[in-house]
Amino acid sequence: MKYLSIASLTTILIFGLFCSIQAQGQDIKLGTINGQVLDSETKSPLLGASVMVVGTKLGARLDLDGKYSIKNVPVGNYTLKFNLIGYEPLSKTDIIVRSKRITYANAELKMSAVETGDVTVTAGYFSKVEDQPTSAVNYSAEEIRRAPGSAGDVSRILMTLPSVAKINDQMNSLVVRGGSPMENAFFVDNIEIPNINHYPTQGSSGGPIGLLNVEFIEDANFSSGGFSAAHGDKLSSIMDLTFREGNREENDYQLEMNFAGFGALGEGPLFNKKGSWMLSVRRSFLDLLVDAIGTGVAPKYSDYQGKLAFDLSSSDKVTVLDILGIDAIEFTKDQSIEDGNIIYGSTNIVENAFGVNWRHLWGKNGYSNTSISHMMTRYKSDFYRTKNDDNLSGGESTEQSFYLRNVNHYRLNESNRLEFGFDAKHLGIDNNSFFAEYTDPFGKDTPAVIFDDDISGQKLSAFATYISKPFSKFTASLGLRADYFSLNENAHISPRLSLSYQLTPKTSINGSTGIYYQNLPLIAFSGSGDHTNLKDPVAYHYIVGINHLLTENTRLTLEVYDKEYDNFPLDPTQPSLFIVDELFYRYGFFFDHEILVDNGKANSKGVELIVQKKLAENVYGLVSGSYFRSRYQDYDGIWRDRVFDNRYVLSVEGGYKPNSKWEFSLRWIYAGGVPYTPFDEVSSQADSSGIFDQTRVNEVRHSDYHSLNIRFDRRFHFGGSNLICYVSVWNAYNRKNVASFYWNEIENKQDVSYQWSALPIFGLEYEF
After folding, report:
1. Is 2 a residue whose pLDDT tops 60?
2. For residue 202, what is the domain's CATH number?
3. Nearest-5° angle of CA 557, CA 560, CA 562?
């Protein structure tokens, strides 16, 4: 934390320098808004739609390609309204116009579903996915960028949602509706990315620092349950991201610097404006500060991501995506002794995702996305025990996958449409690592384990969803998915059903149910035990909710859910522990389990409330709350609380924009303390290592969590460039939230690790 503070103080010097610059002259600064309007169901261009800049007399109509251009727009923040007869009106907020820059604002319109003169009340500010009427939320790039406490991390902005448990500030792992971090999937432009974080946790989807550059993101859709048959092999949530295309008219560049590091982004046209390129390079600088100071430990990481787009024809577009992350950290023994860490050593991780997506339009009736991709993650580590220099673990593990995905959307008529496709994946793991003799969480001596495994398998799936509107106020979605995994020869059929009824122009009632299977991660099949005979974990989703528009730009959502789990792996030698939550107990995901059974059960149920206001004028915000319970049944049949069971979460997030220059925002979260298992102090002192009290597994709770994040943004518009300066303070009133209790092996006593203390964050984004 002290090195993050030093980084922030270093950045503030540059912050002060740039913010002292004043724009020369009093000329009005102008920018341009370009975009394209498509039919949301077929992706075909729409003709005749009008685009209006709210609060001005500026606007445009679409050309034959569905494109528009609004020139000479004064710099500032705007809302665009799109209208076309036969389609629901749409309002897009947070359209930032910058000096001598082109802002792209694409839109997708839906055919009108409600035949009433009051339809404009229900339209516009909130996106609606007919085959996902429950548990879905959408974020724009600007909403992600400016969120206090998110640091431009698309995962951290979701921490405000009532469906996401609050666990630890240092991690952005998503724990959705009583699940675990292994139960989430991420897609970028129809390409599945196993983990979107630096320092990813093997076998899981979590990490401490976001990998994706928010400047690339055009749209983010998050589903916390009841998602369609097009997505499988995950039990809890789907995040579907769209990367924007680069500027096809001119070359643009951006430099950024914040507490974590610095970066550069460039974009521009290709192939005579038939395509575009976009490239980002970022590097942390905490390690450079530590080297300059001459002491300390800091992570060193960098990422490189790019996107190419090219129009083969008016009906065919190809995009190429690559995301590379490189992570390293080394703890010396002296530093570990000073910080009270029980281990020292090093970790090096390289992850890369490469994919090509081809979008083809089927005239005016539908479209398809077909992608082929390759994923690779290599983990290398070497750790020692601080108190005696014993080598605890080390080696190298590499996971790879080759993925073919096809999704088709076809509109049969105005009331019926189909979504169908398939997935084919070849995946493997080459695991060459070892774990020295260790004591398990309950004090049992466990022999050393050497992994020398080369495991591979295939996953095949096919899916189809039929969406029907038998009459204007009612929509039904029926889906079916089939999956097969060659490694354990398990095959599954998963039905899905969603219903939505529009009670009034302002109110709808919705429901979803379905069966969701997930294969265990490959690392679970590596080791001394043969676990190919295990059943795949399964979850049954039951969701009922209501949406009500309080105003045109303010929506209330109330949902009740029940999620029943079955077939989870359990270790009879550790009967009270839940294996899939093991990363919470240890430094990694699955340790070697020689014997596993698949009769583990879990349950999560709760109620969630969200009131969200979009930025229609100068105020925006989201207030949410949830009450839930998440439990599991252990090997002995005893029901226990899971380690992510907050019970209740309350959050408030919002902001005020008095003008186009300033913005003030905050986020406050209050959550119940999560369960933990206390140490058996007598046994721990005798063994000089932490041993849990197995008679009190998850029976004690941390104190409640609460924290306030605040942020101030200031925009400067110069003659040919733009600058954003922002100041943020995380945990502004310095609440000492407990992260965990651990056994300090050096002092042979229980110690405590705290989450982030008050941390100032300063950043700059310069566009030219």
Report:
1. no
2. 2.40.170.20
3. 145
